[in-house]
């Protein structure tokens, strides 16, 4: 049973400008492993975190580092939830989650689907 769906899109150029203007955002938004990625990849990961928050009902108390986007050996992205985000996922009954990322034509996008047991 689906318990949440979220989608988000991010303009890569605008995101890059914001990151240049406010360098501290890189640390605030991303885990150390995520920070090493390209700006297109970071924009997609930001979209993933936003999409996840929407799928969880957009509570205001989620910590950015409690949702990390990792890549499997195949390149497939996956969400790793800890702390505040894992607690919220449990509260809404999410047992598994699915993530799709894309970046093309200057836009990064992400879709998150939460499934209950």
TrEMBL record:
GO cellular component: cytoplasm
Domain 4'-phosphopantetheinyl transferase: 4-89
Residues that hold Mg(2+) according to the record: 8, 50
Cell compartments where the protein resides: Cytoplasm
Protein EC: 2.7.8.7
SUPFAM superfamilies recorded: 4'-phosphopantetheinyl transferase
Reactions catalysed according to its record: apo-[ACP] + CoA = holo-[ACP] + adenosine 3',5'-bisphosphate + H(+)
Principal subcellular localization: cytoplasm
InterPro entries reported for this sequence: 4-PPantetheinyl_Trfase_dom, 4-PPantetheinyl_Trfase_dom_sf, ACPS, Ppantetheine-prot_Trfase_dom
One GO-annotated biological process of the protein: fatty acid biosynthetic process
Top EC class, one word: transferase
Keywords noted in UniProt: Cytoplasm, Fatty acid biosynthesis, Fatty acid metabolism, Lipid biosynthesis, Lipid metabolism, Magnesium, Metal-binding, Transferase
GO terms assigned for molecular function: holo-[acyl-carrier-protein] synthase activity; magnesium ion binding
Keyword Metal-binding: yes
Cofactor: Mg(2+)
Keyword Lipid metabolism among UniProt keywords: yes
Stored NCBIfam families: acpS, pantethn_trn, PRK00070.3-2
Family: Belongs to the P-Pant transferase superfamily. AcpS family.
HAMAP family (UniProt xref): AcpS
Job description of the protein: Transfers the 4'-phosphopantetheine moiety from coenzyme A to a Ser of acyl-carrier-protein.
Name of the protein described by the UniProt record: Holo-[acyl-carrier-protein] synthase
Species annotation: Marmoricola endophyticus
């Amino acid at each position: 049973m689906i318990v949440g769906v979220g989608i988000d899109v991010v303009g890569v150029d605008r995101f890059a400008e914001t990151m240049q203007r406010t360098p501290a955002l890189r640390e605030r938004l991303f885990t150390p492993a995520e920070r090493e990625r390209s700006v297109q990849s970071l924009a997609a990961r930001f979209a993933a975190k936003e999409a996840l928050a929407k799928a969880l009902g957009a509570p205001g108390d989620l910590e950015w580092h409690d949702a990390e986007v990792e890549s499997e050996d195949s390149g497939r992205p996956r969400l790793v939830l800890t702390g505040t985000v894992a607690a919220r996922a449990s509260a809404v009954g999410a047992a598994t989650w699915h993530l799709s990322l894309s970046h093309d034509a200057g836009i990064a996008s992400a879709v998150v689907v939460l499934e209950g047991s």
